[in-house]
Amino acid sequence: MFSKILIANRGEIAVRIIRACKEMGISTVAVFSEADREALHVSLADESYCIGPAPVGESYLNMAAIISAAICSGAQAIHPGYGLLSENARFAALCEECNITFIGPKSETIAKTGDKDEARKTMRAAGVPVIPGCDAVADVEEAKAQAEKIGFPLLIKARAGGGGRGIRLVKEASELEAAYQNASREALSAFGDGGVYMEKYLYPAKHIEMQILCDNFGNVVCLGERECSIQRKNQKLIEECPSSAIDQKTREKMIEVATKAAKAVNYRNAGTVEFLFDRDGNFYFMEMNTRLQVEHTVTEMVTGYDLVKWQIRIAAGQKLEFSQKNVHLNGHAIECRINAENPELNFRPSCGRVTLLHVPGGPWVRFDTALYQDYFVPPYYDSMIGKLIVFAKTREEAIRKIQAALCELVIEGVDHNSELHMELLNDPEFKSGDYYTDFMAKRSR
Ligand code: ADP
Ligand code: ADP
Ligand code: MG
């Protein structure tokens, strides 16, 4: 086992990983930007290094500075969290070259699955159903020709995409050219790669994803599904485990396909296979996320397995101690992402000092955050400032529990979306469980 791990991230996920390390008796090294000197992850870690100015490009994405901090501190491994460098194949390769264990899959696996066009081809060849569509297109003329075959509506998607960026809906042929240019431009500036491919737009559909864990000895275990259909602009807002749409038979089928997908890319460590699931129970591969997910918490609550600890154990060369038959989804968990933004002002991001903080408590209530009273929420980073997670025996109880917890949550000084969450949880469509990815868009109409 490692004796020291560097956490190459910030915010709630850095705190989450430090906690797991502490419980495992592993020393922790934090890295931080000049804007994050007062951040919670810095004070919780055993040691910390400033890696540059506030903008992520100069700090949290500064590979040389992070690797230097790992070498100086004698950290044997780096946990990248989610976002930032977590799906950066170059960074994983750099760790490998420097003899530092990257807590995640091999760099070549990240490269292979991070290219969503290539991932589609790999999955298709392995017999995993993919969304009907086409391979990457070279220019707008080719896009037009392929679009005729796919039919409208369709989605243009960045092959290097992530975080909902570089995606455009095209309802009819006349919109194609502008959408193509927009998607490609956005992809180029976000990912340095303007390449796009297209898929049939499936609706109504649910976003259902499968959590997998793979060790270095060929053992693959799938920890069931997460329902992530409540999204705003392709970004998840509320997640649940299990999904109301999935019975045990369907679950077993999806576990089988997700396991096949993991094996097709020789997967290692924790990962997620994302599917679109239609009303008839058909499901199609969308993409694979080669990292820990924001919403891993709901899986932890329902399966009882600590995913971050398993990521660390697997990276240290340990065997999975349990197999598929040990995995049971017990009860129901829901997560609400608390974002520093104002839903009334078109979700304008908010920053500022937290003048009052009260965090909900009680049995089976979990609030993952890096906030503390008097903390200044900086304007430079992702707007997610906390995740409220509850666990109960049934879905109905879980909804009531998370509503009660939301009532207790007080964050003053920055705008946030807890009232919006309250409304969403009260929505009859949400309560029915029969909701799809268009849930938020339908509400705002
Ligand atoms: P999840 O399924 O874990 O929610 P997301 O796609 O929402 O995955 O990404 C997780 C986090 O990483 C989010 O905070 C998101 O904003 C951020 N993120 C994802 N991809 C990128 C990217 N390419 N560049 C910057 N941030 C990203
Ligand atoms: P990202 O890498 O940005 O997370 P995804 O491919 O996972 O991109 O898509 C993000 C979201 O967009 C999905 O969760 C889903 O809601 C929606 N989406 C993606 N592809 C399709 C599709 N073919 N039809 C309908 N909705 C889609
Ligand atoms: Mg996705």
Characterise this structure.
- The protein is an alpha+beta fold and 445 residues long.
- Helices cover 34% and strands 29% of the residues.
- The chain folds into 3 domains: 4-103, Rossmann fold (3-Layer(aba) Sandwich), CATH 3.40.50.20; 132-200, ATP-grasp fold, A domain (Dna Ligase, domain 1); 205-443, ATP-grasp fold, B domain (D-amino Acid Aminotransferase, Chain A, domain 1, 2-Layer Sandwich).
- The chain has helices at residues 11-23, 40-44, 63-73, 89-97, 107-114, 116-125, 140-150, 176-191, 248-264, 296-303, 307-315, 395-408, 418-426, 428-432, 439-444, and strands spanning 4-7, 27-32, 47-50, 77-79, 101-102, 133-137, 154-162, 165-170, 196-200, 205-214, 220-232, 235-241, 269-278, 283-289, 332-339, 341-342, 348-349, 352-353, 356-358, 365-369, 376-377, 384-392, 410-412.
- The strands form 6 sheets. An 8-stranded antiparallel β-sheet has the order 14-13-10-11-12-15-22-20. The protein has a 5-stranded parallel β-sheet with strand order 3-2-1-4-5, with helices on both faces.
- Helix 4 packs antiparallel against helix 5 (107-114) and helix 12 (395-408) runs antiparallel to helix 13.
- The N and C termini lie far apart (53 Å).
- The model has no long low-confidence stretch (mean pLDDT 97).
- It binds adenosine-5'-diphosphate (ADP) (2 copies) and magnesium ion.
- Magnesium ion (MG) is lined by residues 274, 287.
- The site of one adenosine-5'-diphosphate has 13 residues, from helix 8 and strand 12.
